[in-house]
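If you are new to this repository, start here. Below is one unmodified record pulled from the training split, so you can see the exact layout before writing a loader.
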Amino acid sequence: MKFLAYLICYCIYPFSFLFPRRKKKWAFGSFRGAFNDNAKYLFIHVSEQMPEINCAWLSINKAVVHEIRAKGLKAYYILSPAGIWFALTSKYWFFNAYSSDIMFCLSGGAVLVNLWHGLPLKRIEFDIDSGLLADRFVKKTLKERYFHPEVFKRPNYVVSSSELFSEVFARSFRIPRDRCLDLGLARNEILTWPEEKRMAFIDRYEPTLTKNLMDQMKRFSRVFVYMPTWRDSQNDFIAAGFDFKALETVLAESDSLFLVKPHANTVIESTALDGLNHIKLLPATLDVYPILPYTDVLVTDYSSIMYDYILMESKDVILYLFDYQEYISERPFIWSFDEMSYGHRAYDFDSLLNLIRDAGLRPNEDAKTLLAEKCWGENRKDACEKISSFFKQA
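And here is the target side for that same chain:
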């Protein structure tokens, strides 16, 4: 069935080049039909600030479509006549990963704008030269080409943050350097907004789940948020790296909350947290960016979330690297991890507990500033305005 579905897609694809595409018609989408990440924030900005642009969110998930419409924004089920027509006649497609975030077979003739989902620390896409993804990006096998056509269709543009990362994106997506736009990431704006503006956004666009979570967070003295990157092997690394009962005891001592937000591709056994009052597993569908300003410490590993988190003042980072050697054997870093990372390091669980116990844990603002300059330069704010203005004038 999967083979036939892709065969139908390949039959449809050439006809998508025949439709005239309108410059002021913009389509937005995200992986698995979700409403999240950079595309979400850019879409809301364009919807609010650019009435001359006809923009819509296209999703394979009908529940997401209803959710967006309830917020007063335009959205279509991608397999509906209206959704197909909007996709076929929109000049610009904005997405978080690939054209399949909307629908690959309808993308012919569209200008594809890849907003990506973070600044890479490890090798991505065609910069990967070994490991479990080698069949796709190194060998480029027929099977990988057939079932992942969206990977092999180069975007017209990739949105970046600085000269340093644009060089990486150009190499990884096999596009010219001048098609990598140093404009910043749309999702980060909410991290540095004034409180009044951020709360107005949350009240209008975020679900009750987010608001309830924020109320719960206020009951604790400190809030940690654990956001690890995913492993190509997709092994259960969280179970291997944590004794949640021991962690619960340490958190209770300091009246702290530990939020666990795994990568969307990571599976975690939720029953492991049953009966624990200081550890909370967040749903995979929850947009964590609105709540990050209300956390105190990020716990991560090799994830570029650290680059976003350091945009906020008076917050700290713990790097929990218990599987460092195993991880780098799966996918190497682009550059020195020591030079392009920030945070207090823990290489085993006991060291992590000691850092969590440390009530005097304080950020190294000089180190944060130095790394933020490399990552963001002048693009720490107003990304949505910069990106939307560029394509309005293109």
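Two things worth knowing about this chain: The chain has a mean pLDDT of 92. The chain has 18 helices and 13 strands.
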